[in-house]
Design goal:
The complex is a heterodimer of chains A (about 140) and B (about 140).
Chain A: H1 3-25, H2 30-37, H3 48-66, H4 87-103, H5 107-113, H6 119-144
Helix pairs in contact in A: 2-4, 5-6
Chain B: H1 3-27, H2 33-41, H3 48-68, H4 80-96, H5 103-110, H6 114-136
Helix pairs in contact in B: 2-3, 5-6
The chains are: A mainly alpha (about 140), B mainly alpha (about 140).
Amino acid sequence: MSAALGRHLVALAVGLVFGAGLLVSGMTQPAKVLAFLDVTGSWDPSLMFVMASAIPVYAVVYRLALRRPRPLLSDAFVLPSRSGLDARLIGGAALFGIGWGLSGYCPGPAVVSLASGALDVVVFVAMTALGMWLAARCERPRARS
Amino acid sequence: MDVASLWRAIFGGALIGLAAALLLWANGRVVGVSGLLGGVLAPARGDVSWRAVALLGLVLAGIAGALVAPEHISSSPRPLGLLALAGLLVGIGTRLGNGCTSGHGVCGISRLSARSIVATAIFMSSGMLTVFVLRRLGAAP
């Protein structure tokens, strides 16, 4: 089996397991997500434990993985290189949070929920794609200069 | 909050952490769903195909979930116009902010990235504030 095929099979497995995790945890139920964000109302803190459980698992494997000379199926680890805070990060995160609070959807659960074929999630994901495309279009001229 | 949903959150979170860990261990990549989407829709450089396959895996998980346990996928209680606006903000925001709940919230915090810790604190706060404002305007969450 070639390494490229292996990497694609891994990506498929990652999507399946990640999606299963989102389904099991309750993240694909927008009303539950909104109840998690509703701290002054009938707050449902259970979704906090999704992050609280995912982070230690990933944190341990991350440190073990980076001790190895290279990943199993590729030549090098590709990690985010940006550091430092800027207005783009802060403004972008604030806008994302507003969209999350308006809908109860973030990108992962929305993509998984596409399987339901419901109009609301199809519209949400289409508009997310449009937003990404618009933001990328606005970025490009600046990146060129 | 009932005990069952607490255990489901913990188990589901562990699966999410394991999936992200597998991608790092085998492929050397960091995962975030907005990064997968953005990398397919508006690629800055190559690497489109593995992201498309990972997105396919997410959708296939959804199809399996819809067949086996349809109660785990529900629609948003919010009206369609608001969802359209929300989708647009999520798209613009995750692209500008370089990540969402998975990339910043899980992978970034695990790496102790200052950018991800700040981004997560901000989107959690603005999400909570948005729900609060909508509640004051009379929308049930």
